[in-house]
Records
---
Amino acid sequence: MTPARLLPEGRQVWRVGGTSLVISPRLVTITVVLLVVGAALGVAAMAIGTLRLSFAEVVAAVVDTSGNAQHDRVVRGLRLPRVITALSAGAALGISGAIFQSVSRNALGSPDVIGFTTGAATGAIVQIIVFQAEALQVSLGAVAGGLLTAIVVYILSRRGGVTGGYRLILIGIGVSAVLGAVNGLLLVTGDLNQVYTASLWLSGSLDARTWTHALPVAVGVLVLAPLVLPLARRASLIEMGDDIAQQLGVRVERTRVLLMLAAVALAGLATGAAGPIAFVALAAPQLVVRLTGWRRMPVVSAAAMGGCLLILADTVTRLLPITAAVPIGRVTGIVGGLYLIWMLTRAKQV
Amino acid sequence: MTSPPALEAARLTLAYESRQVAHDLDVSIPDGAVTVILGPNACGKSTLLRALARLLRPKTGQVLLHGQDVQRLAPKELARRLGLLPQSSVAPAGITVADLVGRGRFPHQRMLQQWSHEDEEAVARALAATGVAELADRAVEELSGGQRQRVWIALILAQETPVLLLDEPTTYLDISHQLEVLELCRQLNRDQGRTVVLVLHDLNQAARYADHLVVLHDGAVAATGAPETVLTEQLLHDVFRLEARVVTDPVFGTPLVIPIAARNTAAA
């Protein structure tokens, strides 16, 4: 038997001395392509608008060699924060979805399905309507709301020191329904101006994003992704069942809690920055798994795919021949709903 | 027993949440032998196995693996010395046989040592021992029940632990596949000197393949020892509520249980 046969198709081992790494060239290629596409879409998104710029002008303005004060102001003050917000929020949602799908062992287990996005929205609406808060507090409110919802769902779905699986999803859906009603209630009790701000926020938007929106989620992704990455192997073992993973030497519940904390923080940061965005967390991990054939929780590739999806959705939305600004959250909501129906109708088991 | 036991559980109290499964349980698993754990449904067989493998923390008491408290071993260290095949595990969608079996090498790997030559050899040996080498590239979900069970056993074998615990490895298999699995377990013991612990339901298979029997009843050890001394008509009556005759198997010379009737009275 040739040793290479024991590795799944398309995987290679890189060995140097005592070090050995298993690499999927296809995964690496697709991730690099997605990163390049994301960057290109970002540049394209910064070129369009009332002031049309060439790619070269955008790049020059970003790296501070343009010498054109107007270009600098438009690109670095207005368009770059929006693009960074879109890419980072998309990446955060991609990782968050990958984690929750792995933990719940179900393709439906994404943060928007199991209530964390709704909880984050509740936190944000409370900030807007009750405290008339500014962007940063709204973001913090969203993170806190998402975290609180996650803690409630975690405690309710925990039995015998063990979480995961169907219970997590079903309880998440239940909690989400309650919070959805609370959100509706908050909207009818508030002052008209705040209600308008809140419902605009609820539609999910990348309009008028500033660095206050962009930085928290960007830093969150840069800090949390490297922390999640080494846990991906363990997460994949846990997908086979708690007992088999634990007998292989994985600290199951500890790994799961760490992963979920990271996922909730990422989903909360993304929601705080862009409002509730559907579909990205659900679809990005599934799409990369299908593209790469890598049977393991995707992290960097899911992040790259999430960023691409969101910036693409935003750019397409802006190019639509409609005079009114269409909120991105609504667009992803419609696409996501259709995707969900398609997935449910063709799934052998859900 | 001449050599010290492989596993020794002392004064175990086992419970899930508030439901107590066993109290003050003492069990000893001989080293280098095939031990079969028997008992009626819900007597605590799987719970005991989970406690032995540290999947369940006992409320009181301790489990010693070759004299060392399992609670004190690092998770991966324990996973290199003791393997447990749980009753139900899920093969990830689309995973191949070799990929799944390779996951058994996790306790031997580190972040920068993901696939050594030893990993490769161990997986090759595990695939060969379970007769699934020619299925290496196939998707696990395409396999028959018997093949799938052998793949899971291969995963535990690739772990290369001197002690193996298997929870009902013959469930859902037809009779010839059941015998295949049991023969494999005996081979692992006879050829490689591994300590094998099986939870089984079939009394006659237990009698034939066990060197040592542990019979559990209501969370306590009802009897333990060689099959010939343990499997008596009185024990079958008391523990399994079974009216039965025990004769000598004409082929193997081991005890052969002939069930006559279930005793449904609560008198037992």
Note: Chain B is about 30% helix and 30% strand.
---
Amino acid sequence: MMEKKVHIQTINKQNLVQTVQKGGCGECVTSCQSACKTSCTVSNQDCQKQ
Amino acid sequence: MAKTQPYDFSLLHKFAIEDTYIVLDINSGIVHSLSKEAWDFLEGWEQAGGDLEQATALLQTTLPLGELEEIRKSFEELIATGALFSSSTVEENYAPRDEQIVKALCLHVAHDCNLRCKYCFAGTGPFGADRSLMDLATGQKALDFLFAASGPRRHVEVDYFGGEPLLNFNVVKELIKYGKEKARETGKILKQTLTTNAVLLTPEIIDYLNQEDVQLILSIDGRPQVHDQMRPFISGKGSFALVDQRIREYLSRQKADTYYVRGTYTHFNLDFCEDVLYLVDRGMKRVSLEPVVASPEQDYALQEEDLPVLKEQYARLAEKWLQYYREGKPFQFFHFNIDLNKGPCLLKRLSGCGAGNEYLAVSPLGDLYPCHQFMENKAFCLGNVFTGIQNQALREDFRQAHVFNKPECRGCWARFFCSGGCHANAYHFHRDLRKPYELGCELQKTRLEYGIYLQVKVWTDRQQEQPQEA
């Protein structure tokens, strides 16, 4: 039997809108402090709570 | 039948790389990988002005009915769960917090340098002021200031920076010790980093820094000729041979893998992917190579016409990253590091780098600036570590320079990834904290697309290895 084709795959579960409720603790690393002294990339930091 | 509202495609960012079709739901940050058929459906849907009924009717000629219905149903399920076309009220209600907290300092322990890098934003060390070193009392006062100003925050950070901080190693050593004592007394967790050109990084210093858990950021630009052209000694001689030897010595003596080697690419090495791979192949597995930021009249400055080549380079780098990953010899490229599941919360993404607020830079005399790139620009002096922050109006300017207050950012798909970009770049190019540096934005968006693409590829590989977890 042919396998059914999956048309949409969701890669991640974290929903940013929902992080507003529990987020904002401010404990995460400052984005420009490591390896990034001439550009700003906030999204590649990790959350300290997770 | 009641007509449904058309769906707003400005809430999505869709892009295709090779045969990988990706859609990012901007507000939720949720990423979906699509089949070609689902991608065609989405395209048709957008072309139908977001009208789902019209799109379905139009696509009946190109997709088998069963498949069409299935794809539509899948999209509708995602919409119902807030994973597609999600809206947000955050923008309407957002007001950045005024907590008066400082949790990270860039400590300029040396405004002097033993290299004469041609693109140096520090004016080869002194930032336009006198060549000087921070004394121990000022450094200690800066740490006192940090521990007090961090208030309830547990995690605090210090980056020993310059100029070249190892020119003032005796003071750095004392400050590392002092910082640890303060952390113990206050119950805080102190992360200490040191950004160095590695010229003075002897085995003794390496062992000391490792023992004290100081994370290193080591500057090297890539291939010898590329590095030597831009990073000579005062004599004019290239520094590659020594720096490369020092960094490899460091790698052989460290175990924590918390370092980054970082470099800068310029108009002279538009094929910078070769430099990243050169470093990786020499054992440097944690690499950051960043575009130079310079006035357009400089011969090494990146120009708008360089963009197509640079985008091709990121494409090539992403393919190489994936190849190395699949061959079991992965490396980290800082700007591709995106963890879609454990990334920062939305409030962090809105507060951005924190320059001028949570993050400040300290001059050798103890003056406070919004970040290292505003150093010694007196109009940006916020106060000093002895008397605290006086210029609250400037602090407020930085706090208010968030994505919702930047017209160019408000509608940009990348706004929750870059947080509006670098304040210093915005100021230096436009004299306006709220007007982002366009070339930087283009490169940022390119890097983000490849970063997300790699996440999708890795996720897909893992699913194929462990299909039961799908």
Note: DSSP finds 17 helices and 16 strands in chain B.
---
Amino acid sequence: MDQGIRIDNVGMTYSGLSGQVEALRAVSLAITPGEFICLVGPSGCGKTTLLNIIAGFLTPTCGAVEVNGRRVQGPGPDRGVVFQQYAVFPWLTVRENVAFGLTLGANRLPRAEADAIVDHFIQLVGLGDFEHAYPKELSGGMKQRVAIARSYAVNPAVLLMDEPFGALDAQTRQFMQESLLQILEQERKTVVFVTHGVEEATYLASRVVVMAARPGRIREIIPVEIPYPRLAEIKTTPEFVRIRARIDSVVREEFRKQRDRG
Amino acid sequence: MANASHRAPAASLLYRRQRRRERWEKTGYFMASFGMLLVIWETSRALGIINPLLFPSVGAVLESCVAQLRDGSLQTHMYASFMRVLVSFTIGIVLAVVCGFLIGWFRVVRMLLDPVINFFRSLPPIALIPLMIIFFGIGETSKIVVLSYAAFFPALVVIYQALVSLEPIYIRAGKALGASNLEIFRRIILPQLVPHIITACRVSLGVCWATLVAAELIAAQRGIGAMMVEAQNFFQMPPLVLGILLIGAISLVMDAIVRLIERRATAWQEKMP
């Protein structure tokens, strides 16, 4: 049985030129399987640091993270990561990119089975016509869909997304948000999603975690009690507007505090 | 692009036609450029700008080329030069790839060797020839050592610089998919280095060839450089000029071959238009 993610009293301190920087202090959060968590907050609040700790790219200076009951000790295929800079391998075609994880020793499958999975996810993200194209021929949105399909192919329990749509134009971003929710309707995952956009967070998340800076910590957790599937039209409903305004006011306040101090 | 199935056929046809036109245009200019050189050559002889006794006509150089091809001496010289470059270039590149990885990978090795590498890199290979002749005599060994040295340093620098400037994000992406260290190396680091290794080959081949001619001018019985020294000793101008032309032509051909390989191996890279 999937046990989700447990973040237990995580702290992170970097030593830099200007002395010690406390990027995270005493962050605790329990995420149940299938939840969609958005981390928002002013820059420097440690949201990307927290994501990198869950991914296993960083080791926290104190506390621990457990994913599905196992303590995180490094990156692994149980946690898919989608980066803002896409990180799609440019020397491989779309198909080879999506298949990459399945050709590794850690998750190797019989050829026919792997082929079927790759086909399935290429179709799911709508890149059937582009499977033999190289990434340089794709738009930003398409590259990010390759990255999502590549993560999905190894069937992780958790999807970690670091401002995945941050580099896209407004129209494409909107479309990618809808696509992501559709994909999740078909293949449920636990998602932790870092973003700057309050509207994006409200639209996607089941709970929005607003963080504060210096030191980075959880300021407030705001549930978004709007049932899935969510169509784009819900963004104009009074309920959506109310929740978004509430998150916005907390984020603004944190932003102001940080500006006044810095 | 080999795989253009997702492109509209009309657009791809237009694209191909345009590419073909560009290729023809390039070939035309290439011929015109060398044609110009020949015209200048002949007219300046005819007008007496250069002494016809000191500089042979195009016809005389061609004649010398044909005569030397007939008696097989040109082939012998070219073969000798080619083999020297081929053997030394291979030794130099293989060593450069291996050492490049060690230096790029281990910080201690890099910090320790970087100053020495820069010293040797700025030392022209020709400067080693007298020492090598004392060490190994005037036979093939001294030439192979100097030429391998010439091929080694430029390639080494290109490869380890490429290795330290690799994007860490692809390694992270690989690790998040479950790749082991060996898989990261073989399937993520190596493919990114291929274009740089080819660049290294290009640079090394150029340096190697230039050094070869210098080495043969100093001490060799066979090879294009030796052919030129012999011509100089007997005041035979046509073979001397033929040697110069051959050296230039061969390095152009070698560079074109490496560029062709480069285009094939790096089709995935984004290129400046």
Note: The CA atoms of residues 48 and 190 of chain B lie 58 Å apart.
---
Amino acid sequence: MPFEIWEDTRAQAIITAHAGHEGAMLPILHALQAAFGLIPEAAIPLIAETLNLSHAEVHGVVTFYHDFRRELPGRHVLKLCRAEACQAMGGDALGARARGKLGLDWGGTTADGQVTLDAVFCLGLCATAPSAMIDGRLVGRLNEARLDALLEQAQ
Amino acid sequence: MPLIQETDYGTPVSKAEKTVTLTIDGVKVTVPEGTSLMRAAVDAGIQVPKLCATDSVAAFGSCRLCLVEIKGRNGTPASCTTPVAEGIEVSTQTERLKQIRRGVMELYISDHPLDCLTCAANGDCELQDMAGAVGLREVRYGYAGENHLDAAKDESNPYFTFDPSKCIVCSRCVRACEEVQGTFALTIDGRGFASHVSAGIDQDFIESECVSCGACVQACPTATLMEKSVIDIGQPEHSVVTTCAYCGVGCSFKAEMRGTEVVRMVPYKDGKANHGHSCVKGRFAWGYATHRDRILNPMVREKISDPWREVSWDEAIGHVASEFKRIQAKYGRTAVGGITSSRCTNEETYLVQKLIRAGFGNNNVDTCARVCHSPTGYGLKETFGTSAGTQDFDSVTEAEVVLIIGANPTDAHPVFASQMKRRLRAGAKLIVLDPRRIDLVRMPHVEASHHLQLKPGTNVALITALAHVIVTEGLADEAFVRERCDWDEFQDWAAFVAEARNSPEAVSAITGVPADAIRAAARLYATGGNAAIYYGLGVTEHSQGTTMVMGMANLAMATGNIGRRGVGVNPLRGQNNVQGACDMGSFPHEFTGYRHISDDVTRATFEALWGVTLDAEPGLRIPNMLDAAVDGSFKAIYIQGEDIAQSDPDTQHVVAGLENMECVVVQDLFLNETANFAHVFLPGSTFLEKDGTFTNAERRIGRVRKVMPSRSGMADWEITVAISNAMGFPMHYAHPSEIMDEIAELTPTFAGVSYDKLDALGSVQWPCNEAAPEGTPIMHIDHFVRGKGHFVITEYVPTDERTGPRFPLLLTTGRILSQYNVGAQTRRTDNVVWHHEDLLEIHPHDAEQRGVRDGDWVRLQSRAGGTSLRAKITERVAPGVVYTTFHHPETQANVVTTEFSDWATNCPEYKVTAVQVSPSNGPTEWQSRYQGISEHNRHIADAAE
Amino acid sequence: MSPDRLIYMANQIGKYFESQHRQNAVDGIADHLRKFWDPSMRRTISAYAKNGGEGLDPVVLQAVRALSGVGPT
């Protein structure tokens, strides 16, 4: 999906819009990522100044959550679950297959900017393990064939 | 004394009144409600193993080492996060707990370098201790797995290193930065195995928001955060408790020593002013004591253009005595005088004024407080009856409204600022009156409700307008005033402040502060609960400094904000012993304890003990001495530990005065700027090299203890004694304690003070006498010292220092965290990393008008003189106002300041100078010429010359 | 000491005491000068006042004149 190019005044407007709410930091981070696709380092002083926090505090929150990106993702984002239930149902092998086919490690993006492969720890779909998510859409009962299809679709 | 190991209770003390009784390992213990099991165990004499807990920060419960079992409850709760409960039975040592602890330690050690023998923390490492305590004998996982052993060390801070390979991610540093210091510069980056301590945005410490207070180093249980001095020297072997010689907070430190070498200065938990906290100056910037610039031999010269000649102590002292006698014989008894130092001890200050009054036979003694807090002395004595602040520092923990006027605590009084910030984070409201946006106006987790950004020089108009609101809106505490103050005076004062010309609406035009902001601030101060005023030199260093001090006192009395905890009027003293120097009779008009020299009864007690007749007339104050020197009637001066050529206003006038004298004696650590004009240099001793006492801003007398021999061979008090003896007025003291005994004998407010008492109590706040044997934390509780509180009319008289077409901007001056006053000490430490030159802060609008860009050299010109420095463009200052510091002699900021001074005390008007700023290529002619003279006049002849 | 500076300082002191309603300004000024000014400063300003005292505010002039002859000046 297309993201806006980072721009301080636009970012500040987003931050200001959420600043009045209690516990504003997470909604701000989500809104920034929705707009720009990532949380660049430039966001940290702006958020810190607006919420009257230190740079360190904002940095601590941003880095705590894997979902907040420091770099732009590919056009498609494939998340494979690596949590216990999915592991038990063969998730590790599917993960290795996906990494092999894309030539990526976890968190990487293909050179053409087409696909980002993320690990995720539990999508709440243990009953249909192994599970995945592609561009926000949940996929259950993953197997090699379905994984290949997803990859093909994404590439 | 041996190395002091202070008890770590693991979690902070509970202040609850209700108590709870429980049993721990069979020992019955009663503690306040809310106490952790860990702390209760320490009270019962039992140490529960721990890593992430320390009593300076709240419990966190992350290390899983302090687990205990409670009879009848499931699981193994962490003792640090579990509060005590009535009647429970706790076990801290069971087979199950041992297994768990050993397992936890095994995991920690599996990702920790095994270099204990060569580690700087060897012998002072809690991780090492805990491995021992839980009986760890092997690590079954091996060391080959993923680990952090190769993590890069951050050595960017000049004083400590951060070695993440040794980090156990207990977050003690992060929490200390937040809870103790209040800077929030550290965080944990990432999560799980990847989590690591990060300064700022994963930056080097030096690049981050870190202010180098040392709280993280103090909190670290391993060698991760470690003083470089310990890495260089090794672990200390003994400690000496002493008092910091920087600002007026007067922090208590343990000097941790190897022999006579300081290994590190560690803030002392039992210190009543600092409670185990410190700042970058006291904690780290002590290296000046052994700096190569220290002058260690006395020196003499005929003319100031001659090179210095090193001489023996005997020769130097003999020369001083014969010169002073010669000059008195030739020009009269009053042609000589001296200046005591707020950097020296009470005992030393006392001796200098004694030498002058009794030995010189006149009262020409003054002290550097003249140029900082002399209006405090006058103003608070006039209104309340005592020339000192009303509260102890801890009082701020009960303040609900904090009003800061002309002070910048986070830079100038950082350890007290941390305590204040803690209170503000807990909900107290803050009002700031300052022409400049100090950090406290808005910084992480602190935000002032009101910042009244007034025009420099308009304090009195503003304080009267605040009073106007309080009186006209019926917010005064009439019951308090009727009981405690002179009611008729109050009514007169109320009628005066209520005049329409003192209303916020009228005063707004003078101060530049919107009327509604003044009204809101006044209402908050009067109705927000306990309201406490803290102020600094932004109050005193004005032509109406004294009037402003009295204006604040009026406000406190009118609202009943005096005489209990959480309220009061509190000067933040600039130097370690300003309070003490004033207490010790350093002013030309008063003896110790602020008693006027014309008082016959008081004078008689001094005459009886000293065995001389004393002059009943006030002597010259510093500016008067300089004026008299320029006129030719004042010929010799003995200056102990003050650099008037850099710190006093209107440098060219100071220099002219000094150049006109026949004998200038400078007693100091370094060849300071004043020494350029001196005929005799007597090398003094640092606070590490002598015994004595300092009195901090809360009237707390704390011991200074000698940790190393005097490098010049004489402590400052011994030098004064030697001069006095040579002058024919013998003094006999074997130890400073005997000087304190004499002070106590002569001074009613010090009657109960002795070194024995200070050793027993740690410190004591005067008045300390029969009525208050353990001292007086809060003053004026039932009645004012003077009887009835005295309201004073505070008519605003604008300073004659005005802006105009030639000098359209107002210059105001201040201080920065890493440097201290004239910088004689801090410039000789690694603190220069943070501030190596004075900068001129200028508003973007004013800069643009003048074509000045950030970092440009600019010329700063007033009618008194001009200097050049670099510009820093910032919105901290309002348009029309510029600001600089005075830490560096190259800048010579006081070349620019004028001769205007406070009406009552002659305290210079540093805070208001009309100036012009223009682009410049570099130093001014004066700076270059002065630099030349300075280099020439510093020359010390070789022994052969 | 140069009278100019002393005149300036004395007038500054005068302005304060003039504003205090409950105290006689002349007494207040004179008392302040006695308590805080060194005798040579008081002598200089007194001599100056004797010669007309130009530049001294009226109330200050009165106070300075009241100083003369009082105490060991």
Note: Chain B touches chain A at residues 183-191, 198-202, 208-209, 442-447 (CB under 8 Å).
